[in-house]
Write a structure and sequence with these properties.
Chain lengths: 108, 167
């Protein structure tokens, strides 16, 4: 299965994991505590996030910590931004037109 | 007022859909008109500096809106929407495509199956767009097309594009 940045954020649990470790790096146990699902399920999500290169592992002593790969998250934002911008522009143009039409109607 | 209008934009790569929600400061009849009347569509459908020009419009189930986008260099790219379901004034859906001047679909490019739903609340109309692609590759292509102001890239004018980067 292909792993890309969008797969990282397409699942709500993964989005939640990203939000948690954005604040600080966390161990798998600490992360699992935040979710009602099994540790295995959370581990699966973490694995996908690591494969997407959105999260990376860091060993501190004997513990493994997961931290956010900030650059990859920025790449996602950039992609979404470009596409979203096109729609934003179109809608903004539509806002102007609707205002013009409404004003014309009020003049009658 | 504009700052309070909802604009939600979510890309879901697991089911290959894009979900857009946007509120407009106008009653539903006006917003519906703006999305279905080619005279008004021509004014906003393409993001500036692009311009939409309708060739023909048949807003009915099975009907087609054929138009071209004209770029700032004068280059024209034809597109069409084949309408599938129309439920006035609540929703309509269709399948869009890149095509030639006669509306013949260009099979090289992905087609989007989309549905627009309209609802009004206290003078504010919300449009909910769900756009669906047949594969992850198609969705990525569409995003990439937008990302690169893509009509230029998409239609093989790579040389022109690279040339413009040198300026």
């Amino acid at each position: 299965m292909r792993r890309d940045v969008f797969q990282a954020i397409s699942d709500p649990t993964r989005r939640a994991i990203i939000t948690l470790i954005a604040l600080q790096a966390m161990t798998p146990n600490a992360l699992a505590e935040h979710f009602h699902t099994s540790r295995q399920a959370v581990s699966k999500h973490i694995k996908i996030l690591v494969e997407c290169e959105v999260v990376k592992e860091e060993k501190v002593g004997r513990e493994i910590y997961y931290k956010l790969e900030v650059d990859k998250m920025k790449a996602i934002d950039q992609w979404m931004e470009q596409f979203r911008k096109i729609w934003e522009t179109k809608f903004s143009q539509l806002d102007d037109i609707l205002l013009t039409i409404k004003n014309k109607r009020n003049e009658k | 007022m504009r700052n309070n209008l909802l604009f939600d934009f979510v890309v879901n790569k697991e089911n290959n859909t894009i979900n857009v929600k946007r509120e407009f400061d106008a009653t539903l009849d006006l917003v519906w008109e703006a999305w279905t009347n080619p005279e008004i569509l021509d004014q906003w459908w393409a993001p500036k500096p692009w311009k939409t020009n309708t060739v023909s419009m048949d807003f009915s189930e099975g009907g087609t809106w054929l138009y071209y986008m004209q770029g700032p260099e004068g280059d024209r790219h034809y597109c069409k929407n084949d309408y599938k379901t129309i439920d006035i004034p609540k929703s309509f859906s269709g399948l869009d495509a890149f095509c030639d001047g006669n509306g013949i679909t260009n099979e090289d490019f992905p087609r989007t199956l989309w549905k627009n739903t309209f609802s009004e609340n206290d003078g504010i109309t919300m449009v909910h767009i769900v756009a669906r692609y047949s594969s992850l590759e198609d969705l990525e292509k569409i995003i990439a097309l937008g990302f690169k102001e893509g009509f230029t890239m998409a239609l093989g004018n790579l040389d022109d594009y690279l040339e413009s980067l040198k300026k």
